[in-house]
Amino acid sequence: MNKDIKKIIVKNWFKTLQDMICKEIEELEGKKNIFNKKTWERGNNKNEGGGEFRIYENGKIFDKVGVNFSEVYGKFSNQFKNKIPGTNTNSKFWASGISVVMHMKNPHVPAMHFNTRYVYTSYGWFGGGMDVTPCFKDEKLEKWFHSEIKKTCDKHNKNYYKKYKKWCDEYFYLPHRNEPRGIGGIFFDYKKNNWEKDFSFVREVGISFKNIFREIILKKHKKKWTKKDKEIQYEKRGRYVEFNLLYDRGTKFGLNTGGNVDAILMSLPPLAKWK
Predict the structure, then answer these.
(1) Which of 55, 86, 191, 207 could form a disulfide with 126 if both were Cys (CB 3.0 to 4.6 A apart)?
(2) Which residues are paired to 105 by β-bridges?
(3) Separation of alpha carbons 64 and 268, rounded Å
(4) What is the DSSP letter of 163?
(5) How do residues 39-86 score in pLDDT, each as one tens digit?
(6) pLDDT at 243
(7) How many CB atoms lie within 10 A of CB 231?
């Protein structure tokens, strides 16, 4: 299968998954057509791709949720290309992906994040993952969440969960705070050994996330919360902001490749506090 066909297949999957996740969110909210949808284009007066980001705010369950799709291509800047594999002889790239960030109304429902992507320079690779950031410790939920991810990983390779959990724990960490962002999950990158198998895993991770966020919300969203709980959530969101602006690879990649700023920063919560 040539690289252009692979790109089309992957891009279409990410767009399909965007629709599936948005439909699930609408069902949880009990409303249809709730998303504010915006399309954007990369490049000035030239075709370099673009995307669509969908935002929903101030719902009964979600304070803010963003579901973004993008397909961009062109050339990396000379400064940035040295940080990306496969650009030694050519700075051209193509990238497509889906990114989801959920900030919840109820402080007892954790913030959730997911993304998967396919990048092509002189060769192609997959990356992505999912993680959960609760405001309050819940050992039962944490155990269930990780068991679900492990089931997904084990279908493809018994070594994936341990490897990608470790990578996630190391990645989603705030060194200036000396603390993790949340309870982890999985994180992977530069998957390029077998396109068919890697793509199958990426699809499975997407479906798994859709099922996981639904179950977590159904388990937790009716729990009563107080004003003090909300203040704790606002402070926890502050940590989320710090990570995404200081360390997040996706933020840096988007800003360095001419992505849409509003789409890139949709991960930020509607309200956060610092003390």
Answers:
(1) 191
(2) none
(3) 9
(4) H
(5) 999 876 678 899 999 999 999 999 999 999 999 998 887 777 777 888
(6) 96
(7) 14
Q: Identify any residues that bridge with 72 across adjacent strands, giving them in sequence order.
A: 49, 95
Kindly provide the residue ranges of all beta strands, DSSP E only, lying in 59-184, ordered along the sequence: 62-75, 92-104, 111-120, 124-133, 173-174, 179-180
103 belongs to the catalytic site: no
CA 226 from chain center: how many Å?
Answer: 29
Token look-up 């930020």 returns 268
Dihedral sign from CA coordinates of 134, 140, 145, 147 = positive
For 229, the token pair is: 């709980």
Q: Is 215 helix (H, G, I), strand (E, B) or coil?
A: helix
- Per-residue pLDDT at 94: 95
Edge-to-edge, what's the strand order for the sheet holding 185-191? 36-41, 49-57, 62-75, 92-104, 111-120, 124-133, 185-191
Sign of the Cα pseudo-torsion (140, 141, 146, 151, in order): positive
Domain ranges of the chain: 3-267
CATH architecture of the domain with residue range 3-267: 3-Layer(aba) Sandwich (3.40)
Among left, alpha and beta (phi > 0; psi -120 to 50; other), residue 117 is beta
| C-alpha span between 252 and 75 (Å, rounded) | 16
**Catalytic pick from 103, 108, 113, 221?**
113
Residue 175, phi-psi category: left (phi > 0), alpha (psi -120 to 50), beta (remainder): alpha
What are phi and psi for residue 43, nearest 5 degrees? 95, 150
Query: Percent of the chain, pLDDT > 90?
Result: 83
Averaged pLDDT, 199-219: 98
Tokens of 171: 């990645």
Q: Which stretches of 30-159 are DSSP H helices?
A: 78-81, 139-154
The pTM of this model reads 0.94
